[in-house]
Specification:
With about 350 residues, this protein is mostly helical. The protein has one domain: ABC transporter involved in vitamin B12 uptake, BtuC. It has 15 helices and two strands. The protein has a two-stranded antiparallel sheet with strand order 1-2. α2 crosses α9 and α4 runs antiparallel to α12. The longest helix is centred in the C-terminal third of the chain and has 34 residues. It is globular, with a radius of gyration of 20 Å.
């Protein structure tokens, strides 16, 4: 039995749900928000936070999709194409093809899921590397987006825009919770409960830890890995719908920056890059961390090249903390017991 399997059985459920056994990203996020006003006094103003949170929610939902793929030992490079495809469907089907808002939104979530399903089938049935399959799917979807929109961005339906820009709770000038954040929080918690508490989730984890061992136990490994890719596609589609509604007229190819960000959020959240352990809620917290970090860099006026360097330093620091903090904790426990 692998160490990951043992940890899964011994860790409390709340610990597995929130961080996969690591609270480093939670501490790093709290520290970032504490220090933000020190370096940029206006970075935590009402307008700054309310403007930042919807983008953090979009990244959080997309990161949950990437987490599903990484849990299966893969890496999804089709994120830009998936999200561009979802946004083009949510806006273009309504504006150019006369679809109702509901059907356009449904298509924007389901069709990226179908594209993810195709990714999963090719990866599992034909044993092609996920990097190759998803990179090819990314190119196909970007081509479809250009054909669908004929090179012209479309506007989001008014109902969708009102919802994406709306707030579930708002004390003007003091505090607000945008609707997009509520959706992201619900998705993260539900996904975390499914992964940690349901038979489907446990089988997904088992396949991610060891496909051969899961197959020996009678798990239909190809089915579950394919479902993970399909679920990821639907997550990208939902993230794209919220993005399209919030910005109203999204550029056709806006999602390039989400590729590395989703991978970083998944890894910082505690998901095992080799497969197995998945931390859905912490991936969402990592998305909040990355979004606020980017906003802080812009607020202090760092040039774009230095922003990338600073982000890299912070990311490396957080990853090292994930390794050092458990070692220190173990050393302290051994010292006390000794």
């Amino acid at each position: 039995m692998s160490q990951a399997t043992i940890d899964m059985k011994t860790d409390p459920f709340w610990k597995r749900l929130l961080g996969g056994g690591s609270g480093t990203i939670w501490m790093a996020t709290a520290l970032l928000f504490i220090l933000s006003p020190v370096f940029a006094p206006g970075s935590l103003s009402y307008a700054s936070v309310v403007g930042m949170l919807p983008f953090a929610a979009v990244l959080a939902i997309a990161s949950i999709g990437q987490t599903l793929v990484i849990q299966q030992g893969g890496l999804d490079l089709s994120v830009p194409g998936m999200m561009a495809f979802g946004a083009a469907l949510a806006t273009g089907l309504f504006q150019w093809y006369g679809w109702s808002t509901g059907w356009a939104i449904a298509a924007a979530i389901i069709l990226p899921g179908v594209a993810g399903l195709i990714n999963g089938i090719i990866v599992t049935q034909f044993r092609v590397m996920s990097l190759v399959v998803t990179l090819g799917m990314n190119a196909v979807l970007l081509g479809v987006v250009f054909w669908l929109a004929d090179g012209i961005p479309a506007g989001a339906p008014g109902t969708l825009a009102d919802f994406a820009k709306g707030k579930a709770f708002d004390i003007p000038g003091v505090f607000a919770i945008p609707n997009a954040v509520v959706i992201a929080a619900v998705i993260a918690v539900v996904a975390g409960i499914i992964v940690q508490r349901t038979i489907v989730g446990r089988r997904l984890t088992a396949v991610g830890i060891s496909e051969d061992a899961a197959r020996a136990m009678g798990v239909r490994t190809n089915l579950y890995r394919t479902l993970a890719y399909a679920g990821a596609g639907m997550a990208y589609g939902l993230a794209a719908v919220l993005y399209a509604g919030y910005v109203t007229t999204p550029p056709l190819f806006y999602a390039d920056s989400y590729l590395l960000a989703t991978v970083a959020a998944a890894v910082l959240g505690g998901t095992a890059i080799g497969g197995g352990r998945a931390a859905m809620v912490s991936s969402g917290i990592a998305a909040l961390f990355l979004t606020q970090l980017g906003q802080l860099m812009r607020a202090v006026g760092l040039p774009a090249p230095l922003q990338l360097v600073a982000q890299a330093v912070v990311l490396i620091t957080v990853v090292l903390m994930r390794a050092v903090v458990p070692m220190v904790s173990q050393w302290l426990r051994e010292k006390r017991s000794g």
